[in-house]
Amino acid sequence: MRCLVDKTVLNAEVYFKTYGREPSPAGDITVSSSDLSALDDIDLKTVLTEMKSLGAKGELLVVTHSNPDGLKMPLVAGGKSAGAGLKVMDTILKISSGISQREAIRSLSGNKKFKAWQAWFKAFEPGVKLDDSAETEPDWEAFAEKQYDAWHERQGKQILKLPNPAQDLSDLISLVDAVRKAGFARLEFRACRIGTDKDSLKTVANFFNAKKVVAPKEVRTFYGSIPKVTIISDKDFAAKSKSSTARKFPDCKVLFEIGANTFTAFATADSEVKTFIKNYIHSGYAGTITPFRMGGLEPAGKAVIAGKKHVFPLEKDYLTLLGSFDAAAAATASGTP
Question: What global pTM score does this model have?
Fold first, then answer.
């Protein structure tokens, strides 16, 4: 599976390069080093470009930032464009529809063209009135074209706040249309909380025309990397295990003290570290344990799990913390053929 990693998601790049694996309700993900691209600044245009390149059978994992309102990435690189939130996604689709419907008007003539323009203004620019009496005016079409041009300019400059409004809007809409026309097999996010609401995932799936979308529920993703796990005696391990904040495991003598952006790890032997990795992160991992990398999901809100502030990939609770939307299943449930 192709994978795009936002470098501002701390340690995510080294985590996926180390283990190259991620569980998913849509089927486990395998990411090779050649499949992974880490970007300083990820934006929606980059994601769309990747999806267009992959085509209808494409599968893409995006590791980035988000919240229940959508993706926290700009639409395009540079400037201060609107973020790729759910409402903005709907706005982009409406802009795309406005542009395509305007293009369809070009092939019409006479009264059909006039009526089409009336319908267009009612749908996309209700503040502009094109009364029936205007059809007898010789310059009504020039007026309609001028109003459309003003609407189009405003979409890029004021609504989406694109740094190069005309070109950026053209590029963005072209990519959206191409991706939606092709369809997309599977899109996954490891980004905080965007999968909390099933309707949100449906909005994302509709925007990209993706058959399957998977993303974390009301949880935060976390990734960590330290030079090595500190090896301590059984006695010291027993003492540290008494800490109420230590994350311990029943089948290996490994424990973590995890903070907001850092963590420390202790074990009684390197073999215990290897056991932790195989039991909790990647069962087939045979690489080095130094540096030591780990990652997972941190439940929040309604997703909190008693006794588990952090959930690792091979724990049974992990998959329950990932929301999913399957377009085919949704269509069957609604009775749509």
Answer: 0.94
